[in-house]
Amino acid sequence: MDGSVRCVDTPVDVVGRVGAVLRAVSTHEPVGATTSTLARQSGLARPTVHRLLASLLAEGLVDRDPGTGLWQLGPELFFLGSAARSRYDVTALAQPHVRRLAVATGESAFFSARRGDETICLLREDGSFPIRSHVLVEGIRFPLGVASAGMAVLAFLPDPEIDDFLGRVDLAPAHGEQHAPDAVRRRVDQTRASGWALNPGLIVEGSWGMGAAVFDADDRPAWALTLTGIERRFDEARRRELGTLLLHEAHELSRSLRRPRPASGLTP
Asked: Model pTM?
């Protein structure tokens, strides 16, 4: 014995790391990402990420493009997701609302779901206006308080939950000082006052977004409908118009989601 201590991952550590790697891979679909990129994004050491990816590849949970060497989500995730779909999928109910928003406004419309401290974009429908914003794509994740969906959800959580989130999650290093706690709290107040959230080019300059929370049967913000477009199409007068449309569709979708469901349920 040399007196050294060998550190071994506990099962919880391994599961958490696998989850972080899979979530990182999901944000780069369908192109894929390098091992180094996934290591930076997941906050893990590159050798650890490479080892986890090799194990996930063997299980079919990730795939690797033979030409580029980039990592992508694997086919086994499709089958697992298909098995869980009946319990969690609400996109069929949301799709008509997203489409109506895109048709009525000409902008890109989206439906996102809350998952823990993040929102995940589930649906996208592009309107007729030829210039598009590409901040949101299906599968992309943002923390609560970031982008219009994340702000719409965060703003309508109870104050203690907002305090807890901002006390343990520092958004500024990854998303800029405009996402420091005081700035986020100001936008929470603005969102509550107007009913809808505004992202005035905080992620990509010139790309604006608006969002409205969609509530579950317990009156909690569990999803969001959003619109994105270029800055000149989001002047004050049009923001009022878009806000009215968003709130109407969000209210109608909330009503649909609150109706009794089969025993399997539809939960975020």
From this structure: 0.73
